[in-house]
């Protein structure tokens, strides 16, 4: 006991887990953490290739928001006691390769990747919002607020990609479809593994 005989208790960052649908919350936080981690790696790959180009500051601005998203999901992982996906080492490499590879196609290729990813993630966040609203909007108010804000950020990134000629990338529709299929597979796996 410290001086004075009063015990000190450190403040907990954990959320009371009574009454929450733990499997649903675990799945949501795990996959969103993995997605934000992957997004950070994609932007890191794009910056490695295009960081000193005219589009570098735009990519950096989007990456900075993704860093904030990842930081928040790191906090939520602890607060809700959720384990990360075991696939993080794979997403580390795959995200960077996707980012660098799309950037090697030039600015338009990088922006096409951004549009494809952010459209998929925005749709995914909308699905999670519907799930939480069906569960209990009041109980999950904070999580809903976070996911809505991040969805809006992802929509903004999507629109930035379109404004910067994403649709003029070589084989845009093929590239977009391939990236979105990969994104759906990553979501499916990260929710479960």
Explain the overall architecture:
This protein has a single domain (22-191), classed as Ferritin (Up-down Bundle), CATH 1.20.1260. It contains six helices and no strands. The chain has helices spanning 22-50, 56-79, 88-104, 107-135, 141-163, 172-192. The termini are far apart. Mean pLDDT is 93; it is low at 1-12.
Please render the helix and strand layout as text.
Layout: H1 22-50, H2 56-79, H3 88-104, H4 107-135, H5 141-163, H6 172-192
Helix pairs in contact: 1-2, 1-3, 1-4, 1-6, 2-5, 3-4, 4-5, 4-6
Key structural traits:
6 helices, single chain, 74% helix, Ferritin, iron, 193 residues, mainly alpha
| CATH class category name | Mainly Alpha
Kindly identify the CATH topology.
Ferritin
Counting copies of identical and different chains, the oligomeric state is single chain
Overall pLDDT confidence: 93
Pfam families: COQ7
Organism: Corythaixoides concolor (Grey go-away-bird)
Pathway: Cofactor biosynthesis; ubiquinone biosynthesis
Keywords: Iron, Membrane, Metal-binding, Monooxygenase, Oxidoreductase, Ubiquinone biosynthesis
């Amino acid at each position: 006991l410290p001086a004075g005989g009063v015990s000190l208790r450190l403040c907990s960052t954990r959320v009371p887990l009574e009454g929450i649908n733990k499997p649903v919350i675990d799945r949501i936080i795990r996959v969103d953490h993995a997605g934000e981690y992957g997004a950070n790696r994609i932007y890191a790959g794009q910056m490695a290739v295009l960081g000193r180009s005219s589009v570098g500051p735009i990519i950096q601005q989007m990456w900075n928001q993704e860093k904030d998203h990842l930081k928040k999901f790191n906090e939520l992982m602890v607060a809700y006691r959720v384990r990360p996906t075991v696939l993080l080492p794979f997403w580390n490499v795959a995200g960077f390769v996707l980012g660098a590879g799309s950037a090697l196609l030039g600015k338009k290729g990088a922006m096409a990747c951004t549009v494809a990813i952010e459209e998929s993630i925005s749709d995914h966040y909308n699905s999670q919002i519907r799930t939480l609203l069906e569960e209990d909007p009041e109980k999950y108010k904070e999580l809903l607020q976070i996911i809505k804000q991040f969805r809006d950020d992802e929509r903004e990134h999507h629109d930035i990609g379109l404004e910067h000629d994403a649709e003029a990338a070589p084989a845009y529709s093929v590239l977009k479809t391939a990236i979105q299929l990969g994104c759906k597979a990553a979501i499916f796996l990260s929710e479960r593994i």
